[in-house]
Amino acid sequence: MSERTYYVTTPIYYISGQPHIGHAYTTIVADVLARTARTSRSSFFLTGTDEHGQKVAEAAEHAGMSPQAWCDALVPRWQQLFASYDCAYDDFIRTTQPRHERVVSAVFEQLRANGDVYRGTYEGWYCVSDETFWLESKLIDGNCPTCGRPVTRLTEESWFFRLSAYRQRLLEHFRANPEWVRPRSAYNEMLAILEGGLEDLSISRTAFDWGIPIADGSGVIYVWFDALLNYISAIGWSSDNAAFHARWPADVQLVGKEIARFHTIVWPAVLMALGLELPRLVYAHGWITVDGQKIGKSLGNAVDAFVLAERYGADTIRYFLLREAPFGSDFSYSEEKIIARRNADLGNDLGNLLNRSISMITKYFSGVVPLSTATTFSDAFTTLPPRYTEAVLDLRFRDALEDAWTLVSGLNRSIDEHKPWALAKATDDSEAQARLATVMYDLIAGLRWLAIMLAPIMPDRAREMWHQLGFTDDIALQSIRELQWHDLLPGHHVGTGAPLFPRLELTS
Ligand code: ME8
Fold first, then answer.
1. Average pLDDT over residues 95-113
2. Which domains, and CATH codes, for the chain?
3. Which terminus in the chain has less CB density within 10 A, N or C?
């Protein structure tokens, strides 16, 4: 195992409303990365909730609750959602936890002491929904340029973070590391913002008090400055904490593209001010849309993500989300599309392959893997497992799955070409019997590979495949990169088959 821990994060979500499939999406992607990395090294996967700020305070007030009571009531919903999609995070940070508040206060004081934080007056506009300050010149028809909602005028005594002082270093980092922000469209957009110039950022608010208080009573810390620090507070930031340094910098920070600016301009500048390395990669992914509109808490078009998991199964949705579009792009969601993938790729291609293979080996060899002396099937696929892992860890999920499906199709084609049922009838033909043994061996060996390769993406169905194939050890511990066709031993007993992905029809 390599020494450094693979560290992957998601945004921490505002708990101003119910979670939806967009939140599950980013968390599932982080889960897939962490599960994949974990097969060869230690990994740490962080998610959580962003609980301070005006937006959450207003939601609580609307519900007639105190902000803290509101957050405490809602957090379990988020955790249930992630559990229903099988997301095995290592830590769930809440920004109202003392471990986080302590770090935010300490960072604020440190930056104030070294001059990166100074006192001034903020005059401008504010979007509560995005918790973002906007210059007049950036507004579109007087509204928030990101979400289009009306903005409010603010004049507040405030603390500022000297963001502009980091512009040159940020530009250098961008130019020297053109892959540190992906996809390329996000990189280009962020570079253009940097080239256009940076203003210092107001990082305190006085108009309300739902936030981390500043020690001298001059207000509360701006929710984004508070929230971004979760990525280091959760792993115990302090200059002499070895556990912190074993994890930081993060390998991948996943965010939706609408918050790329905070993560690739503000966040790295804060890290520079703290003398910390920048994350290796910030990936600003696209949006899941319905009828061309981003799914969102307040847009009213959110699909109930709990119902989706129940209706189709978590693994079908996980597969759909990664297979439907290249990661990074927007893509539209519909139940018809989910069902199409479920019935074609998962049911017909993979599920039937497993089912046919198990029933044939049961029928022709009493469920025992025969000795095969002549297999050449694997030659075309020897480099598939390492290539697949590399594509997953490089966040090219669709490519990885398409590649895996070449093996699925290859195995299906081998059944069609060799017609094992015909070979089985030729009991006197020793050549036919040898070929039958080889075909059966290849099917089980290939399915074994597929179960292991697909386990990070479809943990439950892959485990079921694994059991049907007769294996009892922990599938999650199998290294994908090191798979060998001949690891399947003749004499191995397969288990009992059952449909992996029963066919589904549209219900509503
Ligand atoms: O922005 N498609 O929280 P948030 C894909 N608290 N992903 C989506 C999505 C969609 N339609 N809708 C939401 C915040 N997401 C801040 C973050 S981090 C220090 C603070 C996902 O509740 C996507 O990852 O608005 C997006 O960036 C995130 O949820 C926004 O969640």
1. 98
2. 339-487 (1.10.730.10)
3. C
